[in-house]
Amino acid sequence: MVAASGIGGSGMNEAVRAGLAMPSGASALEPSYVSSVAQFAYVWGYPMVNMMNRRTRLGAAPEPGRLGGVLPASPIGQIAMLNDYIEPAERFIACPNQDVVYGLGFFSLDEQPVVVQVPDFGDRFYVYAFYDARTDQFGDLGSPYGSTPGHYLLVGPDWHGEVPAGITDVFRSPTALANAIPRIFMDDTDEDRAAIQPLVNQVMVYPLTDYTGEMKTKDWSDVPSFDAGPNAGGAETKWVRPETFFDQLGEVLATVAPQPGEDALYAQFTALLDAGARDPEIRAGIEAAFHAADETFAPHAMQWRYNGRDAANGWNRSVNNSQWGLDYHNRAATSRSNMFENRPNETQYFYTDDDSDGNQLTGGQEYSVVFAAGDLPPVDGFWSLTMYDDDHFFYPNDLRRYSLGTKNKSIVYGDDGSLTIYVGHTSPGADLEANWLPAPDATFSLYLRAYGAKPGITEGTWVPPVITRR
User: Fold this and answer.
1) Local structure of 213: helix, strand or coil
2) Which residue range(s) make up the domain with 28?
3) Cβ(55)–Cβ(179) under 8 Å?
4) Same domain for 290 and 334?
5) pTM of the complete model
6) How far apart are CA 297 and CA 344, in angstroms?
7) How confident is the model at residue 204 (pLDDT cuts 50, 70, 90)?
C-alpha cells in the first residue's frame, strides 16, 4: 500500500497533490466516483503492472536459458537468446513472429548500467528494441539507424557515471525498469540457420562491471531450460490480475515518475489508494472496479478493430506503437493483445479479424490474399503475413508453417509476378500448398508485418491486400 507521500520523489507539486487529494471521510466518496476512477486507473496502469510482473517472472531465471524450453529468460541485468524461430508452444508473449531470432532480458538500471553487444550483421536486417516501464521504446539501435558493430551502454535516468573507453554510444532509459528484445532476421533455410549462429552467439547483455572491451560469446543452442509453471491453456500467461492490482498500482506510482501533464492523474490515483487503505469498504469498491475493468476492457483489447486506425480493405494499422505518449487506450490495448511492438520507423503492422467484406475470418471458410504484381509490401527489411488463433498464438499444423513472406524461398509467384496466399483449415491442393497458411477450424486473425517499411507504407499510399472468400 502506498501513501500520497510515496510519490514525493516524482517531483509532483505539493499544491497540486493537496488540491487533488480526496477527502479523508469515507462517506464523501460516492461509490460510482470511486468505481470510475478505479476503472480508469486499471487501464492506465495495466501496461506498467504487466512490465513489472514479466520482470519478476522472467528475471527469476538462475542463469541465461529458456523458460519452459521456449522463451529466453535470464537473471536481471542479462539477456538470453534463441538460436532459431520461436516455438509455437510459447505462451508468454502474444503475437510472436517467425521471421526473426529473438532475445529477451530485463534490467534494473538504478542498480547499474548494462553493456549491449552488437556483432557485424552485414546486410542482415536487425533491430534491438529497448522498452521502459511504460512500454515506450528508447534508444536507436539496428538497421533502421545505420548502427555499427560494437558495445553500447544502457543507463538509468539518474546515472551520471563515467563512460568507459570502447563504448560506441549511450542510451538513457526514462525509467529504472527496462528491457531489451533483439530481433534478427533469418531466412527459413538450413543454410541461413547455419550462417546466423556465429552472429547470434555474440548477442549478449551484461552488467557494466563485467565489461572488458572484448566481444564475449555464448553458444545459445546449448542453454538450460527452466520450469514454466502453470499455463493458461491456449491463452497468454495472465500477467495482470485484478486481485493483486491494488498494491501493484501503488508500486507503479511510487517508482515510475509521471510524464509531463500526469501530475493530476498521479494525485487522483494515489489518493484513491490511500482512501482504500484506510477504509475496507472503499477498498472493496476499488477492487470490484478493477475486476469489472478486467472483464470488459481485456476482451475488447483482443479485437483488432479497437487497435490503431482503419487501413482499408478491412485491415487496421498500428499508430503510436511503442511511442505511446498519452495514448493510454492503445498503450493498454497493445499490452493486452500484442505487447512489445516496434516503433513505427522500425516496423509497420496491419491486422484484421475479418475478411474484406467485414465477415469474421474462420477456418470453415477458405480465403485468398492476393498481392498484385509489383505490389508486395515495400520494405527495406522484410515482410510477412502471419495467422493467429483467437488467443493470438500460432496454430499447430503438420507443415509447421505459421507465416509466409520474405523468409520463405519456396512460395510460388504467378506468371504475371503476383502472389496469392491461401488461408484456411483445408489444404488448397498439392499444387498450391507452398502458398498455404493453415488455419484452425475456428475463428482466427491475420497480421501483416513490414520491417523497414518504405514511404509507400509509412505515408499511407500502399494499402494491404483484399481478403476474399474462395
Assistant:
1) coil
2) 4-54+238-301
3) yes
4) no
5) 0.93
6) 25
7) very high
